[in-house]
TrEMBL record:
Keyword Oxidoreductase among record annotations: yes
Lineage: Bacteria, Pseudomonadati, Pseudomonadota, Betaproteobacteria, Burkholderiales
Protein's organism: Burkholderia ambifaria (strain MC40-6)
Family: Belongs to the short-chain dehydrogenases/reductases (SDR) family.
SUPFAM superfamilies from the UniProt entry: NAD(P)-binding Rossmann-fold domains
GO terms, molecular function: oxidoreductase activity
Domain of life the protein comes from: Bacteria
Protein name: Short-chain dehydrogenase/reductase SDR
Matching InterPro entries: NAD(P)-bd_dom_sf (IPR036291), SDR_fam (IPR002347)
Keywords tagged on the record: Oxidoreductase
Keyword Secreted: no
Amino acid sequence: MTMNLELQGKRVLVTAGTKGIGKAVVGLFHELGAKVLTTARGQPTDTLADVFVAADLTTVDGCDAVARAVTDHFGGVDIIVHVAGGSMAPGGGFAALGEDEWGQELNLNLLPAVRLDRALLPGMLAQGAGVVIHVTSIQRGRYSARAAVATHRGGEPHCLPGFSARSHDHRNGVCD
């Protein structure tokens, strides 16, 4: 099977692109000829990204800095891959989590994507094309002691499509 991905020169943002899945995504886009900007909280020892931005995406300022960098370095974006996320919540299911834990989980896993999409999708709509991919979690479809992960990762495919529904864009979610 042959695939023609036509990514030469495409402008790509990959969040959390310095380790694990994110690093692999950055490497693949780089190999296929895309221009890649990636983020993490700390400076990586190595990256294949064309541009690296140290930013805490759990903050409005961090997301704003990344959106500005995308515009400043690339003039916009063609593809956004939201990899950032995880969980620091204690086990024990939804009842074990207090208001602060729920807020932290949503702020780590859902709000960075919302903030970046709000900042960058208008440019994608203006250029008439774009792709947004959300790396979610297998937990989103299961009941588990990791209820916070299931809730916010399950929320991405349902709340974020509203950003693109008016333009009939395709939305993609990939489970890790």
